[in-house]
Amino acid sequence: MNLDLDGFIEWRARLLLEKRRGGGGPAHAWASELAAGLLERMRTALDQGDARTAFDLGARAKSLRLPTENLDYLRARAFLALGLKADAVQSLKEELRFFPDNCSARDLLAELTALSQAPVLPGGDPFLDIFAAVREHTMLSRERLRSLFDHARSICERDIPGNFVECGVAAGGSSALLAMVIARHSRRPRTLFSFDTFEGMPDAGDRDVHQGVHAESTGWGAGTCAAPESSVRRLFEDLGVSRVVTTVKGLFQDTLPAMRESLSPVAMLHLDGDWYDSTLTVLETLHGSYASGGGMQIDDYGHWDGCRQAVYDYGQRRGLDLHVQPIDCSGVWLDTQG
């Protein structure tokens, strides 16, 4: 099956509407056929040495948000051909979250990571064993994970009331870290609420740009950063923290307003929504829900222009003097005052 771009966009819109209504009708069946055709064209392009075409076809296939075996494996091959090894590694991990028996993806991932993963050495630092447990399940830097750990532990030990909220879960590594901190250090019962589509990123908007390149042209646009909810829950079970985590599936604008009262007060927010609309939705919805003495970490402030603009616009709308504290080149921390 072959469609021009306008036809593809029209049918993809039908598919996403159908999925939001909970259906699996004609558009879903059509999308499966289209995804298979896109994969075949990706293979042909890669065999012909045309990595850029394969890359573009993969982005289109991912935007369908339809788990398709070998899609992320082929995306990884395209990333490698374009000299983007780190992106290839993340694509292979995404493939294996949905299709853990894909031997080609597993072998290539092992080859790419054989020499790159430094061991975590014991040293009495309680962060290190948690880092070792979650680092294969997250794209966050060590610095941002360390920041999450330190702030979450401080909130627990200072006994700040309230729940933890994460908006943007992906493979679940940062949620697992927060849950482990709650399980080990909280002096009161509290829950981590983990919000995600569990089907990949929504569409990026016009503001969602990095260094002049729109998100959809980076290889990490609509449908990427996905993991099935079952695999995320399995990670929590393996680490023994399921009892303190509630996963919430859906778009932020659909799920957060309905649960706002259940979440409050929010002692800590980890916001990893990437896009302008996603970031602003979370900030506006949770405004006024924070416990005094808590805070929020925003993952993509330094990377995506839209995320940074959303934080600025939120502060302007609410008349807030936001004190943004850098963590690394991307993540920032902000204290909340209730």
CATH class of the largest domain: Alpha Beta
User: What does the average pLDDT come to?
Assistant: 90
CATH superfamily of the largest domain: Vaccinia Virus protein VP39
Specify the CATH architecture of the largest domain.
3-Layer(aba) Sandwich
Number of H- or I-type helical stretches: 13
Compute the number of structural domains: 2
Structural class: alpha/beta
In short, what is this structure?
By secondary structure, the protein is α/β, with parallel strands linked by helices. The protein has 13 helices and nine strands.
Features:
single chain, 338 residues, alpha/beta, Serine Threonine Protein Phosphatase 5, Tetratricopeptide repeat, Rossmann fold, 2 domains, two-stranded antiparallel sheet, 13 helices, 9 strands
What does the secondary structure layout of this molecule look like, with pairings?
Elements: H1 5-20, H2 26-47, H3 51-62, H4 71-81, H5 85-98, H6 103-113, H7 126-134, H8 142-157, E1 163-167, H9 173-185, E2 192-196, E3 209-210, E4 213-214, H10 229-239, E5 245-249, H11 252-263, E6 266-271, H12 276-286, E7 290-298, H13 305-318, E8 325-326, E9 332-337
Parallel strand pairs: 1-2, 1-6, 2-5, 6-7
Antiparallel strand pairs: 3-4, 7-9, 8-9
